[in-house]
Amino acid sequence: MENYWNSAISFDEYIQIAHERLENPADQHEIEYKPYYELGLQRMNRTLKKLVTDEEQVNELKSKNFDGKILIISEAWCGDASATVPALVKFFEGHNEVKIFLRDYDSSLIEQFLTNGTQSIPKVIILDKEFKVKNSWGPRPKFGHDLLLKYKADPENYTKDMFYNDLQIYYSRNRGKDAIQEILELL
Questions:
Q1: 10 Å Cβ neighbour count for 70?
Q2: What dotted CATH number matches 2-139+176-186?
Q3: Alpha carbons 40 and 37: distance in angstroms, whole number
Q4: What average pLDDT does range 143-162 have in this prediction?
Q5: Is the CB of residue 69 less than 8 Å from the CB of residue 157?
Q6: Core-most of 3, 5, 63, 159, by most CB within 10 Å?
Q7: How many angstroms separate the Cα of 143 from the Cα of each of 27, 50, 136, 140, 167?
Q8: Beta strands 98-102; 69-74: pairing state
Q9: For residue 3, what pLDDT is reported?
Q10: Which residues pair with 136 in a beta bridge?
């Protein structure tokens, strides 16, 4: 894990790379994903502007005496990631080091943390100070996962558009609080 950590980037670099991919796509994938990069950057900026840190969660983090690191597998074009990653980074700021590993750059890390056989992101890997995996979380909070199950159970009456709309409303109102709480429970 230490090699992955050393290859990972800061949140500021993550945002910079997303802007670069949006403005100067390097390949067909980045060209096709331009609208998703644009939307992802908008959502991350909105989350950062409206984010309010919950003091009870901060106190819970302090009480756990967690001295490890947080490694997030992500991509800025991902809707779940754009809603969650900024909140996680800002929450742990000043407490634990957080880095981001780009899934599309090297899939060998996400292959170790598949969700039902898929490379779903974001995936949060909780590391101890020796870079051993303590736990992992992702790709979305329980409420978001429940919405996905609702869609999969009855896609004719709860369409994909309804699922995406409900998920984004949830994310815009929750601002990462549930994801932070679920990760705190894993520390």
A1: 22
A2: 3.40.30.10
A3: 5
A4: 97
A5: no
A6: 5
A7: 35, 20, 17, 8, 9
A8: parallel
A9: 97
A10: 125
